[in-house]
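Ligand-bound model needed. magnesium ion.
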Amino acid sequence: MTDHPAPTPDPLVVTATYLVVDLEGTTSAAGFILGDLYDYARPRLAAWIDGHADDPAIAEARRQVLRDASLPGDATTDAVVAVLHEWMERDVKATPLKTIQGQIWAEGFARDEISSHFFDDVIPKLRRWHEQGVGLAVFSSGSVASQVPWFRHSPDGDLTGLITDYFDTVKAGSKKERASYDAIASALGVAASELAFFTDNPGEVAAAVEAGWQVVAFSRAGEPFFEADFGGVPVVASFDDVEMVAP
Ligand SMILES: CSCCC(=O)C(=O)COP(=O)(O)O
Ligand SMILES: [Mg+2]
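Prediction:
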């Protein structure tokens, strides 16, 4: 009997002017972010909040933590940090947490004390699709202040030349609300149907579908939403399972 190799599944072909990518669970391992990056931020939160009290973004983040956690206006920094630690424990994607973490990480990247992580299948495909004329953008809960150095300090060098636009929950709104995807389509100046979103999160899938985007769900073994219910959109396990085509 002759041995036949297993057939390679046909790649999913997606035609779009822009591909917008989620990071954690899609381009990059949650374990790396919740491990290396969170470990870097955790012991630095208190000093950062106190040392940057005059920064309007940090002052606003502190106010939001007090409000969201029902803390009194004169709560100590230690009390604020306790809330942030608890959110980090549960990977709560709270905007004030992301603002503070993002500034800490930006400094860590600039000092070469941390670098980013991408699954092996991601960077070659981003490079290829960029060369082929597909616009590339990011929509992540991680703040833009951390997204840019995340791409600048990749294991494969500076990738910022590939990415034209970065969106976070301050700029665009919640990743689980349709309005955020409408806002991104407006900012990019294209119709929703010309946009593709890659994400691992079923709530984000639903919001982007509602906004009329093309959505590909990522179900990667070992990631938090592996084999989740993605509600009928195409599901893949790797960037190698997809071919992006510019219209
Ligand atoms: C830019 S690196 C840090 C990313 C981060 O903090 C995060 O929460 C990513 O979540 P998402 O799944 O929205 O990319
Ligand atoms: Mg994600």
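The chain is about 40% helix and 15% strand.
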